[in-house]
Amino acid sequence: MGMLVSDSHLDTALERLYWVHVEFFPMHVCAQMTPLILDKLISVICHGMTDRMTSRTSTFPYTEEKCDQLLRALSLRRGEPLDGHTLCFVARLWGAIHNQRFMTYYGQENAQLDRLHPPMSEDIVDRPGMRALANLALWGIPNHHYTKLHDLFVHDQVYVDHWQAFITACISEWRGLLVWAFSVLIASILISMLPRASLSSAMAPVIAASSSILSGSILLLRHHGFEDATASFAASFLRTAKSSDWGFLPLSVVYSMPKAMYLWSMGLMVAQFVFWISRIAGVFWALGGAGFLALMGYSIFYFTSLEDDHPDPMATMLRSHWQTFHSSSAEATETLTV
Questions:
Q1: Could you report the per-residue pLDDT of 78-136, keeping only the tens digit for each?
Q2: SS3 of 83, please?
Q3: How far apart are CA 60 and CA 154, in angstroms?
Q4: Which residue range is the domain that position 208 belongs to?
Q5: Nearest-5° angle of CA 58, CA 305, CA 178?
Q6: Where are the bilayer-spanning segments (predicted)?
Q7: What's the gap between Cα 137 and its chain centre?
Q8: Count: domains in the chain
């Protein structure tokens, strides 16, 4: 049942077991039940639906869409005699709600009011040095998955809609990266076949693109059907994948491999192309093209980042010049309009 903290917490657990019993034997007790349990259930689900609609960190177990479907079904039996069939699904919903109340310490001093905040302190395994090294080598992508996985698995609980949204986005990304990485692979091979091109210069981008394709294919094969997984399956998977020594860092690195290796293959392919340009048009034009690409990438990265994300004075200067140019252009447009 989990850890008990008080007698009232035990009452919640026992009430959940009572509703499980009623769900399996509804015909025996339907005559003893009052129709008010249906009205109270509708009120609870309405409250939960509103909580879900107004908060991204709600602890209610059902989504807004699921709540709407449940309310439609419950409203059909409102005001009708409480028979065994109605009591069966009413008891199932009450059991699920009391189970969630037990897990979130409903009514207790340390109740979990936010999905991302555990009701009790947890020992978070973190390796800042290794995580920084992994982010440096893999373009900062592991940090994104590391944060997401920790937000998904709080207090050994997983909310199925958040899990499905996360894993669906990952699978969609991995599938798309297969196409892009294969395109880089073909492009790198074609560049190596150009006149005066070096075959050895194609080795690095080909290996990086192949690594992206291989890692993405394995992840897609391993996570087939995970989009429709239940909350208990997702919790079991994350509990197993969470290392006792490294936490979610290994899984974060694995999830980052397809995209990170694709980015490496892109960078290496550009370097291969610049090297070919240097052999055809000379070092001056190659360095000029490389400088232009580097400046463009640097500008895009910092202009699309939040100001608090980079204290770099160079980035601040570039942003300042851009805002000055943008405001001057706007004033000129207004003057012409007048």
A1: 988 889 999 999 999 999 999 999 999 999 998 999 999 998 888 788 899 999 999 99
A2: coil
A3: 14
A4: 142-266
A5: 80
A6: 177-195, 202-221, 260-277, 284-304
A7: 21
A8: 2
- Give the torsion through C-alpha atoms of 255, 259, 265, 266, to 10 deg: -170
Tokens, residue 269: 């392919």
Q: Which residues, other chains included, contact 216 with Cβ-Cβ below 8 Å and sequence gap of 6+?
A: 174, 175, 177, 178, 181, 257, 258
DSSP string, 36-69: HHHHHHHHHHHHHHHHHHH-TT---SS-HHHHHH
Residues 71 and 165 in one domain: no
Q: With residue 93 as reference, give the H or E element that holds it.
A: helix 84-103
Of the residues 208, 239, 266, which one is the last residue of a structural domain? Answer: 266
Is 66 within a domain? yes
The one-letter amino acid at 312 = D
Q: Provide φ and ψ at 204, rounded to 5°.
A: -65, -50
Amino acid of residue 233: F
Separation between Cα atoms, residue 154 and residue 289, nearest integer Å: 48
Domain shared by 152 and 78, yes or no? no
Residues 6+ apart with CB under 8 A from 68: 49
Provide the whole-model pTM: 0.84
- Size (the chain), residues: 338
pLDDT tens-digit readout, 19-43 = 999 999 999 888 888 889 999 999 9
